[in-house]
Amino acid sequence: MTRSNWLNKLFVAGLMLVVLAACGNNKGVDEESSSKDKPYAGKEINVLSWEGYQEDEWVTPFEEEYGVKVNVTYAGSVDEMFSKAASGSLKYDLIFMDGGSVTRYNKLNLIQPIDVSKLKHYGDLIPNMKSINDSHVVFDSKTFAIPFAWGSLPMAVNKDKIKEPITSWSALWDSKYKGKIGTMDDASNQVATTALLLGFSDPYNLTPEQLDQVKQKLIEQKPLVRSYYTGFEDGKNLMASGEAWLMFTQGPTMITDLQAQGMNIEEVIPKEGALVWIDNATIGADTKNPDLIYEYINYLISSEVQAQLIKKTGYGGVNKLSVENLTPEEAKKSHMDDASYFDRLVYVASPENFENRVKLWNEVKAQ
């Protein structure tokens, strides 16, 4: 090999090394850039939730944007949810629960305080809804839960059958509607609503004497009741078949579903008030990625996701700006067009003794 050929080959080899080094440096820059764009890439969020709260329409876009995976475990009842959270078999980063249960979880250190300053959409929450909720989820000036969805428990009235205006829960005790009254098979809600009718100021903190009055009032009602129903479909079928003309409902969506079938059903919030549940997002005490969880909560309470939730489930949303993404009909159906709606509602809270209420209700049904 001549000196000239040797030098040429050495030059080519050196050039290739430079090119490869440059490529390697670009790859490093790309990876660094990607890491900055998606700092949570590869992380997972373990969520304990109710059905309907973690739908693909809004979960998948978040997963794709942040490069994360949302793993969801569903619970079918309040007791099942608490059992799953308390068992410790899986550490949940995010737990959805009714506001009345937050105290119970907090006492067992299953959840942690939330820094609301990290949630840019927090200021968009419906003010009077947030005020009601805060009284049950803020302890020692620390917020432990963020509202996510809500629903009232109103009365439904078939206006083709009942012409006069219905304004009080006492209609469910009116003998002229005997055999045409439907009401739910639910201990706590029955006790609380009857307490409202009787004028007790705090339907979730009743004395033994007040509980006895509630029991006697429910026993008085029993001969008038067509059926104690369980579940949305059972209740709707009672109204749709004409077996019931008025009903204590499990939520406004029962009414709007019947209206969609062409029935002339009116929603009534009685003068004594009606119950409202507010489900909240809470952060698990042992989460490893709190900043990621804040990103997810903030996303879930955004006006865009809240509008999707309203349209998908029929539940009320918590972001006042979500109405901008709803049609007038959708806003009216979900009561997002009426800021005063919450002023007539009573928060579903943790009762003085749940077991006693179940016992009371079973005694009523056994009469």
TrEMBL record:
<keyword id="KW-0732">Signal</keyword>
<dbReference type="InterPro" id="IPR006059">
    <property type="entry name" value="SBP"/>
</dbReference>
<keyword id="KW-0813">Transport</keyword>
<protein>
    <recommendedName>
        <fullName>Spermidine/putrescine ABC transporter substrate-binding protein</fullName>
    </recommendedName>
</protein>
<dbReference type="GO" id="GO:0015846">
    <property type="term" value="P:polyamine transport"/>
</dbReference>
<dbReference type="GO" id="GO:0042597">
    <property type="term" value="C:periplasmic space"/>
</dbReference>
<dbReference type="InterPro" id="IPR001188">
    <property type="entry name" value="Sperm_putr-bd"/>
</dbReference>
<dbReference type="Pfam" id="PF13416">
    <property type="entry name" value="SBP_bac_8"/>
</dbReference>
<keyword id="KW-0574">Periplasm</keyword>
<dbReference type="GO" id="GO:0019808">
    <property type="term" value="F:polyamine binding"/>
</dbReference>
<feature type="signal peptide">
    <location>
        <begin position="1"/>
        <end position="21"/>
    </location>
</feature>
